[in-house]
């Protein structure tokens, strides 16, 4: 129903009288006919701001008869409304719309965000370059301080020589995993360095190609940085803990992998949509070129486009153009081009434009005789097509006095002359109104013995063609009409005001033409009516009364909404924060707290060199495991924030805003948890009780703050949920009542 109401408001743009009548015949539309648009206008208010013409007054009467009223706030018209209306009215019918509705519209990221975030991106890339450069200087697990050869107490050096200065991780059966670590770290380092290079090289970031390259480089950086983090932990975590708790330890990283896959899927969908869009745009470009060729009558372009796409003429109906190339060609008189189009697709002769006119309407109005013949050969029924005003091609030819076209149309369809317009007018009425005497003579000849048709009355005032000729003081036409016997016999017929043609003349201004016509009419035996003094108030007065009405509006203000997109405004700051957190949570993978074992030095267990010292103490294993999980969650969440910020997601979308907010809150929460666990692991047992409360006090304050914010969001979510439920209940109740 809202769509129908919108159509009713759009009457000011196209003045579709028949559509308005149809819409008002629907009870539900009529009930909502006084609905207000966003400018607080009813359909009648909208009509008041359209150009003043006959259609406007016709529609005004239709709307008022249907009970459509004006709004009350007539003086609150926004300054831009008139501009908007004129903009709609002046729009070219052949202009293709660049805005296409799409199910993927919500995926579209608007704004050149990469250029806006150049500084923040450079800082992020620089920090990542720094942390990936660290393993080259301080590798995880450290290096051997002395040469160790065939040392049985060190697993890594039992059957080989561990040379001083070489990496501890390069020995002991972990060479493959270590090589993977080096490869991923090198890729992350190179990709981040590439981002910096692109940003400082002066490439145009508005260019889509460079924007895609930069986004891919940044995504590659984050992806392989996460892989490096996972591999570093796998190398440093003791084998027993890794096998027993691998789900807990590596679950956050797996979440990040799924997020990467999700973003990859997202960009794949966007890419496929872009390909489809390019395909559609190519078709639109071809059809646009075809329309330009029809304007110029260029046969070379037509043949080239047909060879390029043999089905291009079949695709015309799928475009938003208001007319076909045949309409344009027929309008401008390109004979050869018109014939070529008709030879390729004769059905084009019956296609209608926005005003429901076929090409024959346009050719007839402009007097292109050869094109009229070509169109009639393609389909003679085209001369019976009615446009939105109920006019056939013959009516337009008669209005413009194109006698040869009139002859061709009458020859095609003999009864075409008797077609009556919606207002009761015949083609003879139009000839008189537009002062086309020669055309009138041609059309009267076949029907000169049909007095009923010759003296038919229109619906506006019940006037015959003689009444109208006298009103317009067309002396030659009046003389001709009075020479037609059937017209002369009905010369004393009355219109709806009870006036004969002579009475109508009496109410016109006194001038030479009036006295001339008076003599002609009286000589022909035309008399005055008996009720000539019962003239109602002039119609101009009634029209003036309608014109005096002004549109009104209800002074209704929408509640103010806070539309500040704070996440978009803080994109740079968020990226810096997330990058710094990623850096500090990446450090334990390279330089773990309490260090690693360089020798096999445990009493009751095997402490492999290169593994974390904290991983082998019985009292600290659970805390150590919690530390690993918490640090991994923090690293994953912060990396996810960066990934979301640089992946091109539209931050105005509420869903992505919520995801980003949750990721950032998760990052801060588990960063605080990691901080506490690290201190607990390193503080000696005898001081832990004394310093525990003092150390945990700031962290508790942070925890309470997080819980408070979480409570606020839960309350807001519940309020939103209740509103949605309430709206749903109201809609259901309204639907049931209807």
TrEMBL record:
Signal peptide segment: none
ANK repeats: 355-387, 389-410, 461-482
Membrane topology according to the record: Multi-pass membrane protein
UniProt cross-references to Pfam families, sorted A to Z: Ank_2, PGG
GO terms for cellular component: plasma membrane
Membrane-crossing segments per the record: 177-200, 212-237, 249-273, 623-646, 658-681, 701-722
InterPro entries for the chain: Ankyrin_rpt, Ankyrin_rpt-contain_sf, PGG_dom
Residue stretches of biased makeup (Polar residues): 74-84
Subcellular location: Membrane
Region (Disordered): 74-97
Residue span(s) of domain PGG: 112-232, 565-680
SMART domains: ANK
Keywords: ANK repeat, Membrane, Repeat, Transmembrane, Transmembrane helix
Highest taxon, organism lineage: Eukaryota
Protein's UniProt name: Ankyrin repeat-containing protein bda1
Species: Quercus suber (Cork oak)
